[in-house]
Every structure is written in structure tokens, then in C-alpha cells.
Amino acid sequence: MRFSRRQFLKMAGAGALCLTLSQLGVDVSEALAYAKTLKIEGAKEVQTICPFCSVCCQVIAYVRDGKLVSTEGDPDFPVNEGALCAKGAALYSMYTNDHRLTKPLYRAPHSDKWEEKSWDWTLDQIARRVKDARDKDMILKNGAGQTVNRLESIFMMGTSHASNEECAVMHQALRGLGVVHMDHQARV
Ligand code: SF4
Q1: Bigger pLDDT: 135 or 166?
Q2: How far is the CA of 85 from the centre of ligand 1 (A)?
Q3: I want to staple 84 with a disulfide (CB 3.0 to 4.6 A). Which of 73, 116, 139, 158 is the partner?
Q4: How far is the CA of 93 from the centre of ligand 1 (A)?
Q5: In order of start, what are the domains of the chain with their CATH numbers?
Q6: Does the CB atom of residue 50 touch ligand 1 within 6 A?
């Protein structure tokens, strides 16, 4: 019979623990009962990837009743061998964290307060301001008369919690508008 590294580690860990504790005369039944209440007990293992950079570390997502209950690095995947950097390790909290924003926040010029806004209002504002900036600042040709179609008055800063695919779409959309100044916090 062949075992994956993960299965081997689980079996070796459980076996060594039971052997050592029972040799010491410790009753492990309570600990085993507790283990059954662990959050991944009975959860389905789904292999996926961390979406936050092109290393694409493999992750095991534990899903119970259609809900994500935990994530961890996949020890069987040769690229990360179970390890995840801080961003990948925080994958689960990104899904569950109470601080996660679910509505747009807007801070008016010179204000020190954030206001909650609707998506309709926010998207209208973005569209209005991008259109105004392009109408005002679009550079069609450079000093040598070459076509450049460049917009230098908009800067885009991406979040490290945008996935590779989201970054690709944002990048293409902004290039299509002529935006040349953009960066991504994941590089920091
Ligand atoms: S962000 Fe970190 S955990 Fe995610 S793929 Fe990149 S290196 Fe791996």
C-alpha cells in the first residue's frame, strides 16, 4: 500500500502519540474524544492553490456542509511542502475576518472620516472621475510626435489580497485606459 506524505505524517503522529502516552499509563480516551470535535473533523479536503502570487503554493481547504472551515499548506506539494508565507497562512482569516470590508468606504477631500457608500454610488463616482481625468489629461503624442496614448494623472495601487487573475484583469483594464502608473502591495 502506498501512502502520501500527509497520510504518513498523520499515521506516524497518531501512532507515536498513542504509543508514548499509553506507555506512560495516560488515559488518551478524553483526548481522542476532544480530537473528534476539532474543526476539521469530518470535513472534506479540497486541494486548491494560494491565489496571492505566482509561486502558487498548494493549499488544502477543509469544507464541511459547503462552508470553508480551515486551510493549511499541502505537505505533499513539492513547491511549498506544506509551508505558506504570511499571506497564504492568512488565507482562511481573509474569508472569515470580522474586519473584512463588505461595503465601499469613501473619504471626501480634506475630511478625516470614512463614510459607507453604496456600490452604485461608488461605481458612478469612479466612472465620472476616470472620464474627467482622461478628458483633461490624456496625452496622445509625445514631444517627438509619436503616438503614446498615455494618462499620467491616475495611479492604481493594488492590494496583496487581489488574486493573480484579479490583478491581470485590473492591469489590462487600466492599460486600456492609458494608465501607466500602477503598483501592487504584494511586492512590498
Ligand atoms: S503568497 Fe505566499 S503562500 Fe501564497 S503562493 Fe505566494 S509564496 Fe505561496
Answers
A1: 135
A2: 6
A3: 73
A4: 15
A5: 1-37 (no CATH), 40-100 (3.30.200.210), 105-187 (no CATH)
A6: yes
